[in-house]
Amino acid sequence: MRARFAPSPTGYLHVGGARTALYNYLAVRATGGEFILRSDDTDTERSSGEFQNDILDGMRWLGLEWDEGIEKGGPHSPYRQSERLARYQEVARSLLDLGKAYLCFATAAELDEMRDVAKAEGRPPGYDGRYRDYDSEQARKRLDGGEDAVIRLKVPRPGETVFEDLVRGEVRFNHDHVEDFIILRSNQTPTYHLASSVDDVDFGITHVIRGEDLLSSTPKHILIGEALEAAPIAYAHLSLLMGPDGKKLSKRHGDTSLRAYREAGYLSEAMTNYLALLGWSFGEDSDIFTLEEAVARFSLDAVQPNAAIFDNDKLEWMNGVYIRAMSDDEFADRVAPLITAEYGELNELQHVRLRMILPHVKERAKLLNEVPGQVGFLMTDDIDYDRGSWDKVMTAPEAKMAVEDGLERLSNLDRWDAESIEGELRAMLEHLQLNGRKGLQPIRVAISGSTISPPLFESMEALGQAETVVRTSRALDLLLESGANLGDS
RNA sequence: GGCCCCGUCGUCUAGCGGCCCAGGACGCUGCCCUCUCAAGGCAGUAACGCCGGUUCAAAUCCGGUCGGGGCUACCA
Question: Closest nt to A148 (CA→C1')?
């Protein structure tokens, strides 16, 4: 099997494109063969190097390694359509010589009129074939005279194109609805249909796996293949990805670029895992699996033909599963750049604190980039008290007692580890006849600034005794002087 | 409008004529655990769009209908 992912670099790689790439990859690796990455950049107006790089980055990030193609090279280099223009012109001309295509001089105005008339008469809209049987001598003459012309494929009429789509079964198109489409524009550049089909043939592609938006164009591609007398290609059209509102996934649903997810703290493992599930099922035993495991079970004919809605909630849950599955060291490594980006280069104290708290943060994180915020109270000794948190717990009558007694005990503790701290604070609860919620929340706010933090005792251990005492005592001062109402810190 | 594709819980899906008064996962709800938040455990919620037909038997096959989506460029 030889399959290709052929995006046009006219935008960032989005999640839908990533899924198409993934399914191509899975199909190839599952059956053996080559996965090819090609750039369909015939639209020079809209294509850009930035987008090209984004696609390459995205593919690498996801771990979808290709065997031939851009940057990698291979027996069919180059894999960029913009570098193969001569080839497409050659094919178009030979089709012309063979009588399988013809020159057309219809102007834009004529084309518009055709469409209007066809629509008005209720016929299929499209080119009416007026130059299909035009005298070739005459055509030559007009061309030499400097007139612009396009080359159109002479679609067999009457006729029908029928093919077996690997995910949808038999699909048929009557040629009444397939116009004599343009293969070479008047400026001598190929249309997508020509370039893509010629490449598929030239590169020995056996399976074209792509989005359903190209299903209607498939007869054109098959017709070009037939005109070239090439071996038939198998097609598999994947359903499109939808937004939560059931409409085609687009910018309207927020930033759907792969990059945006990467930057939001999603792991590539979670992304490929989730994407694989959009239209395919791993089996009833699990929804969590590696790329390799997916390869072992993947099969194109098990792919669902119906559209799938991209569900961020499930992706996020899955990301959490992958984060928790990481080793503490790996988690620390992956999160380190994000923390330095937020707080600058870390000093020794910060390193020590992080090493202690990160394993506990790991258990709670759903997204990598929410971690810096969760460890913020350990990165600076100048913490702010969250107003809502303070008002919620510090105004309770037990708060002052708990903070006061806690401070006393913590100051005198001679062993500073989570276990000892817990023992001491539990003794405080016992002494004051308070339950954990009432007695410990004020202390949590005192040291972290918020009612939400990593586990209290471990947080204190990481903070260190000196700083814990400083913060607790500061909170107590505030309680005393403000009569329980937070001033302006 | 024309052509094409699609139609199982809110979402992703299992199901490929009897094992299904439909299974799993996310979400949601409740309970448990608990120092907060998560995580975890347990329980619950919820679907075969509709109408005909084939058959002893249909979520599974056929037709229609309704609904959704895609395409309809000298874009890809």
Answer: B74
Whether the beta carbon of A488 falls within 7 A of nucleic chain B: the reply is no
> How far apart (Å, rounded) are the C-alpha atoms in residues A70 and A78?
8
CA distance A392 to A294: 48
Contact partners, residue A97, CB within 8 Å, separation at least 6? none
The CATH architecture of the domain made up of A387-488 is Orthogonal Bundle (1.10)
Nucleotides of B under 7 A from a protein CB: 1-8, 10-15, 23-27, 34-40, 68-76
- Would you give the DSSP letter of residue A209? E
State the helix-helix crossing angle for A436-448 and A456-463, rounded to 10 degrees.
30
| pTM, to two decimals | 0.94
Strands A150-153, A101-104: pairing is antiparallel
Q: Decide if A249 contacts A240 (C-beta within 8 A).
A: yes
Scanning residues 98 through 157 of protein chain A, those with a beta carbon under 7 Å from any atom of strand B turn out to be 106-108, 111, 115, 119, 122, 124-127, 148, 150
Taking the CA of residue A311 and the C1' sugar atom of nucleotide B39, their distance in angstroms comes to 21
Q: Measuring from the CA of residue A440 to each C1' atom, give the nucleotide at the shortest distance.
A: B35
Domain boundaries, chain A: 1-70+239-325, 326-378, 387-488
Helices A456-463 and A418-432 cross at an angle (nearest 10°) of 120
Active site (annotated) includes residue A251: yes
CA A87, distance to chain mean position in Å, is 34
Q: Render each residue's pLDDT in chain A as its tens digit; 489 residues.
A: 999 999 999 999 999 999 999 999 999 999 999 999 999 998 888 889 999 999 999 999 999 999 999 999 999 999 999 999 999 999 999 999 999 999 999 999 999 888 888 877 778 888 999 999 999 999 999 999 999 999 999 999 999 999 999 999 999 999 999 999 999 999 999 999 999 999 999 999 999 999 999 999 999 999 999 999 999 999 999 999 999 888 888 777 888 999 999 999 999 999 999 999 999 999 878 899 999 999 999 999 999 999 999 999 999 999 999 999 999 999 999 999 999 999 999 999 999 999 999 999 999 999 999 999 999 999 998 888 999 999 999 988 889 999 999 999 999 999 999 999 999 999 999 999 999 999 999 999 999 999 999 999 999 999 999 999 999 999 999 988 765 455 444
List C-alpha distances in Å: A458 to A447, A452, A454: 12, 14, 8
Nucleotide nearest to A186 (CA to C1'): B74
E-assigned strands of A51-159? Answer: 68-69, 101-104, 150-153
The class that CATH gives domain A1-70+239-325 is alpha beta
Tell me the CA distances in angstroms from A422 to A22, A154, A320, A403, A458, one per residue in order: 49, 83, 28, 15, 9
